Structures are given as C-alpha cells and as structure tokens.
Amino acid sequence: MNDQSPRYVVGVDIGGTFTDVFxxxxxxxxxxxxxxxxxxEDQSKGCIEGIREIVTDLAxxxxxxxxxxxxxxxxxxxKGAPTGIITTSGFRDxxxxxxxxxxxxxxxxxQFDPVVPRDMRVEVNERTLANGTIHKAIDxxxxxxxxxxxLDRGAESxxxxxxxxxxxxENERQALEVVRSVWPNNYAxxxxxxxxxxxxxxxxxxxxxxxxxxxxxxxxLAKLENSFKVNGFxxxxxxxxxxxxxxxxxxxxxxxxxxxxxxxxxxxIASTYIAGEAGFHNIVTCDMGGTSxxxxxxxxxxxxxxxxxNIDFGMTVRTPMIxxxxxxxxGGSIAWVDRGGLLQxxxxxxxxxxxxxxxxxxxxxxxxxxxxxxxxxINASKPMGTSSIAWT
Length: 392
Hints:
This protein is 28% helix and 27% strand. The chain is an alpha+beta fold. It has a 7-stranded mixed β-sheet. Strands 6-5-9-10 form a 4-stranded parallel β-sheet, with helices on both faces. A hairpin with a 5-residue loop joins β21 and β22 (343-349).
C-alpha cells in the first residue's frame, strides 16, 4: 500500500456503451481522463479497469464520485427486476389509469404497459381515510398471503402502496413488517418511506419504479463497493443524485429511483460550470450516450430543478431532479421497422458488446452510429477511440 496520503479525486460515469473516468491529481494540480468499454455483465469491472488506466494503486484515490446511467437505461429499456405491488382494494389499476394522458394526444391507437403488470399487483382489504383515520386495519394473514403469492409469481422486489398512507402510515408500517418477515431479501419497501405525499398516482409510480430498480442498482453497487475494497481502495464512494447532489452507497441502494438521471445530471452540472468559465450563462446541454439522448436548459448559469419528472411516458418520478428531457435514442440505439412499415429507433441499444455494426463484433442490426458512419459524419478510417484512451 502507498504510505502517502491519497492524492486523487476520481469521477466515473458508466454508460451503456462506454465508461469515462476523470482524474484530479490534487498534489500536482493536474487532470487526466480515460475511456474504456463498459462491461455490461459486471459494470464494476469496467470501472476498475478505467481507473487503473491512470492509477495502478487504488490506495492513492481519496474519493470516487460516480454518475451512473444504470437506472436510466433500465427504465428506458424496461430491464428492471420483476416487481410486485400490494395495495388497497379497488386501487390495483392506479398505474394504468395514470392521469389519463396519452402517448399521442390525438392518436386513436396506442397503449401503455406499466413496469409492474396487472397480475403482479394484488389487493388487500384495508383503508385509511383522507384525514388519517384508520377505517380498517390490515389483516396480517392476508398481507402475508399476498406477499407469498407475489413470490410464487416470480417477484424479486415488492412495494406497499395504500390509499391515503401519506396522512397516516400505520397500516403501511404494519404491512411492511409482515412482508419483510417472509420476503427473502431486502427489496421490500412502503410508499410512506419513499414519497409520503398526497397524489395517489405519483406516489404509486415513484414507489413502484424505486422497487423496480432496487435489485439491479443494489446488486451493482454492492459489487462495485466490493471491487474497490479488493483492489485496495479505502476512501469514500459518492453516488450522483438526479438533482445534481451526491449520496452514499447505502442511501442509493435504498432509494435507487433518485439515481434515475444520475449520469445526465452530472453532465449538466459539468456543462454549466465549463460554459460559465467560457462566459456563456444561457445554454442548452445535450448528452448523447449509447442508449439515451438527454437535453437540459441552463438559464443565467443555473440549471432548473423539477419536483416531478417523466423518465418516459407513464414513468413518473416525483423527487427533485434536474429538469431535462430524455429519449431512448443514443449512439447505440438500434433501428428497426415496425409492423406498419415505419422506421423506429430505440429504445433497445447494442451497448458496447456487440456494439454498432461498425465495431465488427458480430452485430447485424444498424444503429445511429452506423448511420453517421455511412453518412460520412464519422470518419471510419479514423476511429475516435480504441479499447482505452488517456491524455493530459
């Protein structure tokens, strides 16, 4: 181990295609960057590989600040965990009813499938009134059976969302205790712990998306933390929140929905600072990754915080986030033709492996990057990167 005090502060952004690492050498006052392909089977591997492009001994690193698009991409591509909801009788379909908005306002066709399908949403007979009065307490046996039914149907995570729980969370607290007594992991939570606010759909959606992401994000962060320890890192790891702030790994594992726009939020903060140093205080930021394209507005040097954000249609998250628009159309987004013969792009991405067709790694489905190569916007004879690059 290095006897000197840790000298590096490291920023890591892991996307669906590339992992970008920024190094600040506090002792020398120098910055360096590195880029490696993301390792989708275990993204912590790509993170360690990227850091070691510059720093061979992780004991030299004091702090790692990590922005991630794991949650963003999981939502856009609908690759979260099988999730169950236990709710009040009569409120099973809140996720589908939404606010009665449509993907296309004037369209005659179209549908929305919630991340939690209807057969994974079960009802129990309980009721809390709007003034907080417990009209009917829970039946522990009924709640326990509901949890067992969801486990039998393949649920990995579960959330409890009772009507008017924001006014009195007692029924939810008791139900959560019962569920946790039979649930085989830590992925069980109540809406009153995630968003104790009025507005039934928003509370249900935010809680459901948190549960949908929790197994994925928790597993990833646990692997990342272990990889750091194994490689001699003894510093602090901070995860970028969607509001531009940071939180600990423990908090991120419990509230993964707060990382839904983690990577893009970090990009907006950096863009705001860089543009400000160049004398530009009113800008539009664009962040094109492998899976998503994110746009945000900075006015008078300040990004805007939104109390509520739609990650995609029907995916409403009510937690403070930097206001931005995200679509599933990044450099690796796959082009395809739908049943009506119309060209569509995304949200599925080719990722880093096999990557776009031009990577010559076995993919035969064209992506946005391939289109840019064909159109001459990217010079195929001069690759923009190999397996890794680094410069000062």
